[in-house]
Amino acid sequence: MQNLPLIAAEFDLIDEILLKYGDDHSVLNACELDGYFTALVSSPTQLDIAEWFPGIWGGQNPQWQTTDEAKQLIELSVRHINTLARQLAEQRSAFTPRFEQTEHLGQTVTLAEEWCFGYLRGVAVANWSALPAVQATLLQAISDCAEQDNFELPQDLDVTAHQQRVAALAPAALALHSYWMSQR
Q1: Which residues in 18-36 are b (16+ Cβ under 10 Å) and which e?
Q2: Of 54, 65, 93, 173, whose CB count within 10 A is highest?
Q3: Helix (H, G, I), strand (E, B), or coil: what is residue 9?
Q4: Per-domain residue ranges for the chain?
Q5: Using the 8-state DSSP alphabet, how is residue 88 labeled?
Q6: What is the CA radius of gyration of the chain?
Q7: Entry's SUPFAM superfamilies (predicted)?
């Protein structure tokens, strides 16, 4: 059961639980959680659930209304982090960050800001050390994307340039994973 990838309904359940218990300091949706887990799986050291689960909530676990919700989120989280670990290590072509889509002036635009927020949260929770210049540039591309305000896309958005920046994120995440795995 812990090796099965999540299906759409399970990602929806994650979104519901994160929204119900989240606040300004927590991961708020499955896209952000995906970025968070991608960074954790790519980290120089493996973290225990006791370290990474509170990181979802900004360091403090919520007051659960039922233990079933906590158990469900933990089970789904473990399955998803295991899927990401397998993809990044063994099935690299299957790795696809979980980004959102929106319509902008009649075009579909991919939004990666929340995934990037999550990734940077994972970097912080895992306490990554300084990176060499090449890898630091890759991480900076993720960081730059996290700073974009995708809630209100500007009318003059260069969609092609935006999509190119977003398209560079998965290769950056794969390269950072490879770097840290070579350091373990």
Answers
A1: beebbeeebbbbbbbbbbb
A2: 173
A3: helix
A4: 8-183
A5: H
A6: 16
A7: YgfB-like
Neighbours of 5 (CB within 10 A): 13
pLDDT band for position 103 (50/70/90)? confident
Report helix, strand and coil shares of the chain as percent, to nearest 5: 60, 5, 35
| Fold for the domain defined by 8-183 | Four Helix Bundle (Hemerythrin (Met), subunit A) (1.20.120)
What predicted TM-score, i.e. pTM, was given to this entire model? 0.94
pLDDT, average across residues 44-61: 94
Tokens for 124, please give them: 């912080």
- pLDDT (tens digit per residue) in 56-102: 999 999 999 999 999 999 999 999 999 999 999 999 999 999 999 98
Residue found under tokens 């896309």: 153
Alpha-carbon torsion 1, 180, 51, 59, what sign? Answer: negative
